[in-house]
Amino acid sequence: MQHSVSDVSVHHRLGRPVLSLRLPAGSSHEHALGLDDMKYVVHLLHSALTLPQQQHVKHTELMIRQEQLKEQLEPLETVRIKMVQEAETKASVLGWAGVAYLSLQGGFLAYLTW
């Protein structure tokens, strides 16, 4: 008869992973862990020990990539700012030109009326 581990959990205490095993009722410790269970426990331990390091490495890689993208986007951002300033200037000029044209048209209509 083969026994298995019913619950395996890894907790972190003081920055270190702690493995806790819960065996089914009536099972002895000698027969509790089969080969598959041992592989699973080793996998959990490995994951618990390497996960913070993997997260740190991935975070560092992402920060480097973010800086590279910012450097690549910097020339495009300056072009965008320049284009926005030109568009605002042209819109302002066209707005005032429209007001001037309407004023001339109103003055001409007044001249013809009176």
From TrEMBL:
One of its GO terms (molecular function) is uniporter activity. Residues 28-114 form the Calcium uniporter protein C-terminal domain. It is found in: Membrane; Mitochondrion inner membrane. It is a multi-pass membrane protein. Keywords: Calcium, Calcium channel, Calcium transport, Ion channel, Ion transport, Membrane, Mitochondrion, Mitochondrion inner membrane, Transmembrane, Transmembrane helix, Transport. Signal peptide: none annotated. One of its GO terms (biological process) is mitochondrial calcium ion homeostasis. Its main location: membrane. Pfam families: MCU. The keyword Membrane applies. Belongs to the MCU (TC 1.A.77) family. The selectivity filter, in which calcium ions are arranged in single file, is composed of two acidic rings separated by one helical turn along the central axis of the channel pore. PANTHER family: CALCIUM UNIPORTER PROTEIN, MITOCHONDRIAL (PTHR13462), CALCIUM UNIPORTER REGULATORY SUBUNIT MCUB, MITOCHONDRIAL (PTHR13462:SF6). This is Calcium uniporter protein. It comes from Collichthys lucidus (Big head croaker).
